[in-house]
Amino acid sequence: MKSILQSPGAWALALSAAALQPAAGQEAMSADSIRAITKEAYIYAYPMIESYNTMYKQLANPAGREYVGGFGRFRHYSQAYTPENHDIVTPNNDTPYSWAWLDLRAEPWVVSVPAVPGNRYYVQQWIDLFTHNFAYIGSRATGNEAGDYLFVGPRFQGELPTGFKKVFRSETDIVLTLTRTALNGPADVDAVKAVQAGMKLQPLSSFAKTPAPAPAPAVTFPAYDAARGHSHDFIAYLNFLLQFTQPPHPSEVELMKRFASIGIGPGLAFDAARLPAATLAAIDKGVDDGKAALAQKAKTTMSSNGMFGSRAELKNDYLTRAVAAEKGLYGNSLAEAWYGGYVGDGSQMATVHFAPGQLPPAKFFWSMTLYTLPERFLYANPLNRYSIGDRTPGLKRDPDGGLTLYLGHVSPGADKESNWLPTPAGRYSAVARVYGPSEAAMNGSWKLPPLTPVPR
């Protein structure tokens, strides 16, 4: 796999897969060292490779249903997600998505948003290749006014024009937005389309009407294969993605040097077949160790608090970043949305009871969405109801002002069906989202009530 960068940097050129072979007078790396570094690298790479799955589908596969049309183009969905959509795991069903990717290598890009009616929630969440949420535009972060925002890549060194509402700098050359626009039922589709149509993407030269710079080299995307991405070949995918993350963040310079000792570096080739058998065995054990650490962390992670955010917010906690990608790739930062949920078995009816005054504390709105396991996609059901929340038509409050939701495979009865979230007959995941969470939700003093089985 050849580097597509024109100037990857002298430090990167010094790295090669030959790092696994000892130089004269040096001792070979021990199997334990290779194993430990591989574990660390696998956890580091996991969210990036999960994101690459989406990137490949949306940018490199024109025949696929998820293709967005290439860099610098919005693909808008005006209807809520359905079980047929598999772009990402645990999608929400409250706010139709708009996807777009920007290539910032040649020049900055301008993102323009229209004036949005004050009663409509929307958010443009911008994500880098590490899966950090590095920029927000929308109702909470910048308001619903029209505006132009400038996005700048890590290697841009020119003078920036003024007049933008905000300038966002990314650590990576390639970024994406997962934009959400609230949909208030089928009759609201045209209004959502109008908001989406007002969102614009332009290279800075086009926006400023100045000569365009030379284009960046075309990207040759390696085909995504889930089995390879979760084996020793994760290194090949990581090396491809690292090309777009230069120079490395100051906090990761030493980390990258350590990774280089097992053949990891921007644009480097990785061929497992050329490695000594003992070396490959140590790498494979390191991958297994990384998977085990991820699985153990996932078992004990029941809240989104601290799982998603910027680099500064995550504090280079790579295991948490990996678990976040496994549980819900591209989750919002806590200030934007709070996430919590349950794992249940639909063969037995269960309830979620909110006591009076204890409904989810949302500035904008809240919902609970049902997913299949282990796939974590929306669950197809006769009601075509994939989520339930404060905007669900006909939702009935309890006589005391509280609220009881019913989760199960079989209807709880005609009198309760308005509050029923259908589930598979077996295991499922239910994720609650609070958009614009209160301080009580963010600091943990408000808690999601338990999922309580109904006695048979």
Automatic annotation (TrEMBL):
This is DUF1254 domain-containing protein. InterPro entries: DUF1214, DUF1214_C_sf, DUF1254, DUF1254_sf. The lineage of its organism: Bacteria, Pseudomonadati, Pseudomonadota, Betaproteobacteria, Burkholderiales. Pfam families: DUF1214, DUF1254. Residues 72-203 form the DUF1254 domain. It comes from Comamonas antarctica. Residues 345-438 form the DUF1214 domain.
